[in-house]
Structures are given as structure tokens and as C-alpha cells.
Design brief:
Blueprint: E1 4-9, H1 13-22, H2 25-28, E2 30-36, H3 39-49, E3 53-57, H4 65-75, E4 80-85, H5 90-98, E5 103-106, H6 111-133, H7 135-158, H8 164-173, E6 183-191, H9 203-206, H10 211-223, E7 228-234, E8 241-248, H11 254-272, E9 276-284, H12 290-301, H13 304-307, E10 312-314, H14 315-318, H15 330-342, H16 345-361, H17 366-386, H18 391-395, H19 401-407, H20 414-454, H21 462-469, H22 473-484, H23 488-506, H24 511-517, H25 523-534, H26 538-544
């Protein structure tokens, strides 16, 4: 295993050199990647070098070891912290324990003791990494998580959140036996309150939590001999309930399935003395569209007040002719928008393909096709306007959206609509990516200007600038470093020191006045940072000039 990275923090250079020299770091499993004289400097080093362990003294100027430990805990929670102190102070130790410090040791540092501590930390780090990498343990955790993952996948499927590329693989991986059918039907099972009868109450009724399990057993027993199916609990808010997705093959029919589900209603009432109502949706010929069948099944349950409870309710019986609808609903719209906004190209192509396939699957009048195409086009136009994209550029040279709403109704084939939609979606994605890049550049430009205007503020932290920019500190720090090549703290320090040099050359102000003017509350720390960059103190720098 690679050596772990460690940083040493102590305000006494001799102590740092002594510890670095005396310890056989490689033998202990570590490499010293840096050192620092105080907590302020250490934070910069930690951000840049990403050590596994920070070994720090408590008593230091500018920022002590406990404050450093607190900031490291907040920003780099997985980093191990070892504190050493020349003071056997119970209060220090108590604070260290509160901060979840890994080790607390007293100076002078004994080589054998520190080596033993480092080896102990290495063993703990090894164990943590081994646990995370352990294939058999991962496999065991995966096996335990499989029912949850399976349930989540099926909920994503009925909520139209599964892509065509993932579908077959997930069905196989989670052992869901419904692939490759001619059509599919969703049914939702609603368990009604137990019937109150005179005489002895069933023990099961006193254990209400067991009723769904008993119903599930009856459903599985009855359906397993008729068709391939999967049974799970849906978690879509008020529509939660036991859900069946049944595969209809050559050897069975939807009518037969409805009969079996009706028998399940009777059997449950007879055995458990609990009525159940089953809503049954339209059939669909593409499993990716099973959400339509599921929604229709939920809608069917809404007719309980009219039809009554304790039996099946097939949506076609209560809403005849509904199977012929073609609508660009909110889920379709969300899928297309997400693909256009975030890509990649394969996802955009798949989303456009789904839009066109819906038209192919629906046996409806041509005017309904036209209405559907116009709904999709309207969605695209709204997205273009929302992101302030160039309409003519998105639709192609020489065209605008007015032309579009004229041309679309004249399209005779679904393929023509797909050929129109795909290049527009790809151009929009490219333009949005460019806009995001430009926006980030603008944000960084604004951040730099904010620093120029407020570098005198000693509390000009990442958090403060992010409140001004309405961004999260973690994302801002990453983007700032990506755009500028510098960490935020390093950039701010550079601005402050450049201003200090300017003031040293143009004014007769004392060093402590200049320190305050460029955002340093402590003159000593200002002198320390200045000397670190320029090699001389501010006073000598001015004298040399």
C-alpha cells in the first residue's frame, strides 16, 4: 500500500526539523509532504496537499492547534489529527476529545512513542481502506441491500426515471423476471380496513403490520402459475401501495390476468377477512412506458366510491377508450428537458427517440399527433427563452419559431419530427454548456472584484464571499481553483501583499497601519506572511526600495 501523507505543524522550526529527522517515516508507513509554522499556514497547506494525518502542536501564534483541529474537522472530516503539547492541561485534553482528535501526546516527543502512535494510526487507516475495498464485504453488503435497490429501481421505473440503456441490465441484475414480454400491465393493490364481524376476531387483525405480508403471499401464490410478474411497494406519496407489474406473453392474456386478480380479491376476503381493491391500468407495449399503466391503475382505484371495494377495477371499464390518448405529459417533458440541459449526446438521442416512439405506439388520429408535436415544440421554445438562447441559431439558419409552428403540422411522418427535433436539442445542449462555462467565468470575475473591493476586511472568508455570490463554499473553492490555478486563500494573500507593497512604496505609514489596511489584525502575522513571500520583513523591504 502507498505511504500515507502527513503534515507537521509547530511554531518552532528546530522542533519540526528534529521530529522530521528522528522518525523513520517510511518504516512507520508515512511520508512528510509538508510542514507549517502556525495554524493559518497549515490550513493553506492542508487544502493544497490533502494529507491523511495532521500532526500539530497546541500552542502556536495566529491560530492554535485546537482551533486548527476544529477547522480541519469541519472542512476535511476524514483527516486524522494528532495533537502534541508541552502542557499537561486537562482542559486541553478535554477539548481535544470533543474534537475527536485521534491522539493526544505530551512534549518532549519520544521517538519510540510517536513511532508506535504512527504505526497504530497506519493500522487504523489500512483497516478503514481495506473494509471499503474488501470485495467479499462489499458483495455481502450488496446482497443485503439488494431488496432495497430492487424496490428503488422498480419505483424509478413506474416514475419514468429509468433509461433504456439501463433497463435490461437492471432487470437481470435484480432478478426481475418480466423482460421480453409482448406487453405489460400494472396493477395497484389497496388493502381496506379489516371487516368487523360478530364473534371471535382473527389474531392477524391484532397484528395489523402482518396483513400486507399475508396479502403479498396470496398474490404471489396465485400469480406465479399464471404469468411472469414482479411485486413491490410503491412509494410515490399518496399513491403508495402494493404494485404488480405483470408480463403478458403468448400463453396468457390481459383478460385472464384480470380474472386471476379478481380471484385474489375473493381469496383474501375469505382467508384473511380483509377486503382488497385492485386497480388495473392499460396495457403498454414498451416497459419504459409502464408508468402510464401504473398511473391509470391508481386512477382506477379512484372509482372505488362508485364501483365499491373488495374487487378489481379495470381502467377501461370506467374510462372507455382511454387507451387512445397521446399526450406530452409532465414526466415526458422533464425527461426531455433534463437530457437537453445536461447531455451527453447519447442521452439526448435516447430522449428524442422516446418522444418519437410514443407517437409510433399510439394509434390515434393524425390531429392528435400534430397536437403532441406542437406540445414538444412549445417545450423546446420555452427552454430556449428561459435560458435566453438565440432562437434563430437554435432552430437553424433562416428559421424562427414562427416558421416551426407552421412547418410541424405539415410533417407527415414521425421520423421527420425526430429529424427536426434532434439537431435542435443538440445545439441547445452545446449552447447551455457554453453558457455555464461563461457564467462560471463571470462568477470568478465577480469574486476577484469582490476581493479587490474588500481585501481590507480581516474576516473575508470563503463563507463570506459565497454568501455574497449565493454559492456553496465547496463548489466555489473547486471552481475558483480550476479557473485561477490558485486556492482562494492563496489568491487573497497575494492580493493583500501586493497592496501592502504598494502602500510601503507610496506612504510613510507604520507597518501595523499597513497591516490593518490590507486585512491583517496582527502586525506580527502580517510580517511573517510578508517575509515568507518576499524573503525580508516589510521594514527592510521598504528600506531596500
Amino acid at each position: 500500500m502507498d505511504l500515507y501523507r502527513i503534515i507537521l505543524v509547530d511554531d518552532e522550526e528546530e522542533v519540526r526539523k528534529s521530529i522530521i529527522k528522528k522518525i523513520d517515516w517510511n518504516a512507520a508507513g508515512f511520508q512528510v509532504v509538508g510542514d507549517a509554522e502556525n495554524g493559518e499556514e497549515a490550513l493553506e497547506r492542508i487544502e493544497a496537499l490533502e494529507p491523511d494525518v495532521v500532526l500539530t502542536d497546541i500552542r502556536m501564534p495566529y491560530m492554535d492547534g485546537l482551533t486548527l483541529a476544529e477547522k480541519v474537522r469541519q472542512r476535511f472530516p476524514s483527516t486524522k489529527i494528532v495533537i502534541f503539547s508541552g502542557y499537561d492541561d486537562f482542559e486541553y485534553a478535554k477539548q481535544a476529545i470533543k474534537l475527536n482528535v485521534t491522539e493526544y501526546i505530551l512534549k518532549p516527543v519520544n521517538v519510540e512513542e510517536l513511532t508506535a502512535i504512527l504505526k497504530r494510526i497506519k493500522a487504523n487507516l489500512d483497516e478503514e481502506i481495506e473494509q471499503k475495498r474488501n470485495v467479499s464485504l462489499l458483495r455481502e453488503n450488496y446482497r443485503k441491500s439488494l431488496p432495497i435497490l430492487r424496490e428503488q429501481f422498480l419505483n424509478d421505473l413506474i416514475n419514468r426515471r429509468v433509461s433504456g440503456e439501463l433497463l435490461a441490465g437492471r432487470l437481470s441484475e435484480y432478478d426481475i423476471p418480466i423482460a421480453g414480454a409482448q406487453k405489460w400491465v400494472a396493477a395497484v393493490i389497496d388493502i381496506e380496513p379489516a371487516e368487523q364481524k360478530e364473534g371471535k376476531e382473527l389474531p392477524l387483525h391484532q397484528e395489523a403490520d402482518l396483513i400486507p405480508i399475508s396479502v403479498m403471499q396470496i398474490v404471489e401464490e396465485k400469480l406465479k402459475d399464471y404469468c411472469r410478474f414482479t411485486l413491490f411497494t410503491s412509494n410515490l406519496g399518496p399513491e403508495s401501495g402494493m404494485t404488480v407489474i405483470a408480463a403478458i406473453d403468448q400463453e396468457n392474456t390481459q383478460t385472464g390476468l384480470i380474472d386471476v386478480l379478481g380471484d385474489i380479491c375473493k381469496e383474501t376476503r375469505k382467508i384473511l377477512e380483509v377486503p382488497i381493491t385492485i386497480g388495473i391500468g392499460h396495457r403498454c407495449t414498451d416497459l419504459l412506458n409502464i408508468s402510464d399503466s401504473y398511473k391509470a391503475a391508481v386512477d382506477a382505484l379512484g372509482y372505488k366510491a362508485i364501483v365499491g371495494i373488495g374487487s378489481t377495477i379495470y381502467i377501461n371499464d370506467v374510462e372507455p377508450g382511454d387507451g387512445g390518448k397521446l399526450a406530452f405529459d409532465s414526466r415526458d417533458e422533464a425527461d426531455l428537458i433534463a437530457a437537453v440541459k445536461f447531455g451527453p449526446q447519447e442521452k439526448i438521442e435516447a430522449a428524442v427517440r422516446r418522444v418519437v416512439d410514443r407517437m409510433n405506439d399510439a394509434k390515434v388520429h393524425f390531429r392528435q399527433h400534430q397536437a403532441y408535436m406542437l406540445s414538444v415544440a412549445n417545450c423546446i421554445v420555452q427552454l430556449i427563452q428561459q435560458y435566453d438562447l438565440d432562437m434563430a441559431e437554435m432552430f437553424g439558419e433562416g428559421r424562427d419559431y414562427a416558421d416551426t409552428f407552421t412547418v410541424i403540422p405539415k410533417m407527415q411522418k414521425q421520423e421527420e419530427f425526430g429529424q427536426w427535433l434532434l439537431p435542435i436539442a443538440l445545439r441547445m445542449n452545446q449552447a447551455m454548456n457554453q453558457e455555464r462555462d461563461n457564467t462560471m467565468k463571470q462568477v470568478i470575475k465577480e469574486a476577484k472584484q469582490y476581493i479587490q473591493d474588500n481585501y481590507q476586511d480581516p474576516d473575508l472568508s470563503v463563507e463570506k464571499i459565497c454568501r455574497h455570490l449565493h454559492m456553496s463554499p465547496a463548489y466555489f473553492s473547486t471552481m475558483f481553483k480550476k479557473e485561477t490555478g490558485q486556492a482562494y486563500i492563496a489568491y487573497l494573500t497575494e492580493v493583500r501583499l501586493d497592496k501592502a507593497v504598494e502602500l510601503l512604496g507610496k506612504t510613510d505609514d507604520k507597518t501595523y497601519v499597513i497591516a490593518a489596511k490590507v486585512g491583517y489584525q496582527e502586525q506580527n502575522y502580517f510580517s511573517y506572511v510578508f517575509k515568507k513571500r518576499f524573503g525580508v520583513s516589510p521594514t527592510k523591504f521598504r528600506g531596500a526600495k
